[in-house]
């Protein structure tokens, strides 16, 4: 039965996410040494950066499914594009909040208009909020799916352009951890970072599976309701 | 690409505008009013923020003016029900986007012929003249980008509830990288500022922006009108 199989997958993903998250929290608070310059507070890095990377992954996933939808016209791909976008906005808000807290602790300002990453992220975040406005302005159906997919794909053009525009417009303050010549972290920090990233990604996957299941149940319920009305 | 069909479609847009005078005059009045508003917003006699604030206002005004024009884009198709006729024509759907991009670009450029001198008069009269080739290049490149993206988004918004509200919401996030770069280029055209090689790089960015959204507009528009 496909339905129980999905249920199992979502539960399994949730269990993996929960154990990885516990491991990540343990490593972040009890194992990893404090940063030399920024001290204890730098630990927010292990939340902020994995959340940001998860957000980008979710957006890429949503855009990929949007492209596949336009290419093939398969209806299920619309939902598979919308759900990652929706989760991406949740993770995106968390990125802005954690980034803002980190900025307050290390630079003394809640928002730094000179920071490339924060500002790029803000543009992308606004873009995805607009995606929702568009999606909720169109009646459900093929047109909504098409319009959402078109707008999601425009974002694929916007993201690199925003990165570039913010970069050529101003100068950097944001700490650079990953340089082109390798990782600027010691072994224990890198391990903690990897576990935290895996935890965030698996959390996203489990949220995706749970939300997809909910949406499918919604759809089936609507279908049944229509059938019941027709029968009555 | 069917050049004859494109010419005919652009000609239709220009004729409609010449006869109805719906878009360009409102855009021109809007941009002038916006300049006056911004001038007072930045302080009536002394300009707060200097040239940088002034060029920022210029580009914000241009983006909003473009939105005023774009909100009427596809109005004839929608209200007059002319889409069906257009869609029956044996041409690539992307051509409708290309034609609307051309006419939007022309409207915007026409408004700027008035708006840019007005801007200089309102904000920067005491400054020496700008470096004209750079300024014109920046404005035209930005216009192409606004037109490419704007006509696609106007197409998206035109058949949707609350389209007047939705179009700016859809458009503004995309205008941020454009405005960010255009403001830097424009500021660097005003003496004694000079951007040198950086200016060339920023103009290159504007050209890249145009290319990206021209390609996306061309590729995606058929999904906007497919009905």
Question: Which two chains touch over the largest interface?
Answer: A-B, 27 and 35 residues
Structural class of chain B: mainly alpha
Which strand-content bin applies to the residues of chain A?
Answer: under 5%
Q: Helix and strand succession of chain B?
A: HHHHHHHHH
The quaternary organization reads as heterodimer
Can you count the beta strands of chain A? 2
Largest sheet: spatial strand order of chain A:
1-2
- Gap between N and C termini of chain B, in Å? 22 Å
Average pLDDT figure of chain B: 87
Shape designation of chain B: globular
Shape of chain A: globular
Into which percent range does the helicity of residues of chain A fall? Answer: over 70%
Task: Give helix % range of chain B.
Answer: over 70%
**Roughly how many Å apart are the termini of chain A?**
30 Å
Number of helices of chain B: 9
User: Biggest sheet of chain B, in brief?
Assistant: none
Number of domains of chain A: 1
Main beta-sheet annotation of chain A = 2 strands, antiparallel
Low-confidence segments of chain B, given as residue ranges, are none
Mean pLDDT of chain A: 83
Sum up the structure in keywords:
heterodimer, A: 232 residues, mainly alpha, two-stranded antiparallel ribbon, 2 strands, B: 227 residues, 9 helices
Question: Can you put this structure into words, describing what you see?
Answer:
The complex is a heterodimer of chains A (about 230) and B (about 230). With about 230 residues, chain A is mainly α. Chain A has six helices and two strands, in the order αααααββα. Chain A has one domain. Chain A has helices spanning about 1-30, 45-70, 75-105, 115-135, 140-170, 185-230, and strands spanning about 180, 180-185. Chain A has a two-stranded antiparallel sheet. In chain A, a hairpin with a 2-residue loop joins β1 (about 180) and β2 (about 180-185). The model of chain A has no long low-confidence stretch (mean pLDDT about 85). Chain B has about 230 residues and is an all-alpha fold. Chain B contains nine helices and no strands. In chain B, α3 (about 50-70) packs antiparallel against α6 and α3 packs antiparallel against α8. Chain B starts with a helix and ends with a helix. The mean pLDDT of chain B is about 85. The interface of A and B includes residues 153 and 168 of A.
């Amino acid at each position: 039965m496909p339905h129980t199989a999905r249920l199992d997958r979502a539960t399994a993903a949730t269990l993996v996410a929960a154990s990885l998250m516990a491991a990540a929290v343990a490593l972040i608070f009890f194992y990893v040494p404090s940063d030399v310059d920024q001290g204890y507070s730098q630990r927010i890095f292990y939340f902020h950066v994995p959340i940001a990377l998860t957000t980008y992954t979710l957006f890429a996933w949503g855009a990929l499914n949007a492209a596949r939808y336009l290419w093939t016209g398969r209806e299920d791909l619309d939902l598979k594009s919308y759900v990652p976008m929706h989760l991406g906005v949740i993770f995106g808000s968390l990125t802005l909040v954690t980034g803002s807290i980190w900025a307050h602790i290390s630079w003394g300002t809640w928002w730094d208009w000179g920071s490339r990453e924060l500002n790029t992220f803000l543009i992308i975040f606004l873009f995805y909020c607009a995606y929702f406005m568009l999606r909720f302005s169109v009646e459900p159906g093929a047109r909504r799916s098409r319009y959402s997919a078109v707008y999601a794909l425009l974002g694929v053009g916007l993201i690199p352009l925003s990165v570039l525009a913010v970069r050529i417009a101003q100068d950097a303050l944001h700490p650079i951890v990953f340089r082109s010549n390798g990782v600027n972290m010691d072994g224990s920090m890198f391990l903690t970072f990897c576990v935290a990233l895996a935890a965030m990604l698996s959390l996203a996957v489990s949220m995706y599976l749970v939300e997809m299941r909910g949406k499918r149940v919604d759809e089936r319920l609507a279908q049944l309701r229509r059938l019941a009305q027709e029968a009555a | 690409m069917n050049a004859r069909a494109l010419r005919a479609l652009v000609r239709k847009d220009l004729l409609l505008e010449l006869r109805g005078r719906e878009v360009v005059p409102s855009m021109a009045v809007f941009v002038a009013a916006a300049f006056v508003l911004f001038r007072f917003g930045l302080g009536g006699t002394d300009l707060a923020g200097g040239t940088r604030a002034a060029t920022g206002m210029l580009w914000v005004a241009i983006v909003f003016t473009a939105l005023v024009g774009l909100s009427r884009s596809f109005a004839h198709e929608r209200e007059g029900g002319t889409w069906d006729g257009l869609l029956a024509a044996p041409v690539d759907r992307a051509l409708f986007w290309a034609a609307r991009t051309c006419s939007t670009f022309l409207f915007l450029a026409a408004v700027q012929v008035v708006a840019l001198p007005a801007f200089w008069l309102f904000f920067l009269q005491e400054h020496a003249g700008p470096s004209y080739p750079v300024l014109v290049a920046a404005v035209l490149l930005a216009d192409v980008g606004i037109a490419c993206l704007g006509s696609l988004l106007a197409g998206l918004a035109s058949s949707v509830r609350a389209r007047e509200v939705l179009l700016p919401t859809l458009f503004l996030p995309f205008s941020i990288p454009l405005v960010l770069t255009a403001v830097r280029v424009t500021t660097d055209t005003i003496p004694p500022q000079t951007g040198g090689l950086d200016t060339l790089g920023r103009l290159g960015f504007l050209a890249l922006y145009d290319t990206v959204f021209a390609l996306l507009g061309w590729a995606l528009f058929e999904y906007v009108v497919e009905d």
